Amino acid sequence: MDALTGLLDQPRARGAFLLRSILNPPWCLRIEDRAPISLVTMVRGSAWILPDGDHPLRLHPGDVAIARGPEPYTIADAPDTPVQIVIHPGQGCTTVRGEDMAQDMSLGVRTWGDSADGAAIMLSGTYQLHSEVSQRLLRALPPLLVRPAGAAEAPLVALLGAEIAKNELGQEIVLDRLLDLLLVTVLRSWLAEADTTPGWYRAQQDPVVGPALRLMHADPAYPWTVVTLAGKVGASRAAFARRFTTLVGESPMKYLTDWRLDLAADLLREPDATVAAVARQVGYGSAFALSAAFKRVRGLSPQEHRRPS
To answer: Most exposed residue of 28, 89, 125, 127, measured as fewest CB within 10 angstroms of its CB?
Structure first.
């Protein structure tokens, strides 16, 4: 398993909030939901996304925007349109004065807006929990990423648009998986073309560090050391450690620890998981050892992490 596969395998939406918005200008939505990550795409019309303290970005039909929370941002028909609606944590919807608008603007199943035939149709999908997407992957993203409409994303946007307003058995699972697939497709394309990419992504092509990353991702529970990794890739301990740190930006053991704890963080959210079982899965000899590492790196215990936020 390569590092990118390991990270892209983690998006697992669980009851994601998906919405089709149909709006007539002038319109302006202030997004303050603090969601860890959201996707926005236009089906009809265009929009401007205005991150706080940064330049506005234009969103055309088929373009996909990924917003990394918890920072707020604004979406509008034009950069100078005043805010009309505020989206709060839990997807509550109010006017700027705090008046609830959810009922007044409901247009049917997962559809909301001020007109059934508005000039703009926008699809949005929001991951609800921080554990649903790898923290390492989130850290690699800019606060706002806009990908132009591409051949890979277009069929998924069209399919999401067709499915979002349906109310059939199993529809929530269908929409969750479509959201995951769209996210993975956009991120993979972005990483392949971005001018600035994280060290672990660039290092995958290195003949020494790349194989070491694949070994760690394929078997995180193995008792890897710098010596065993260096031996597997045919390098001396010192040369391997130096090359890994230069290319990835952190030492092999720091990378392995963070990868194991990212995996543990997701596994601990499973209903039947125990700390001891998760510890074995990610390479710690006991529940105590995992708890100590988790507390040291993340600042809270596994038990505190798994409590609903």
So the answer is: 89
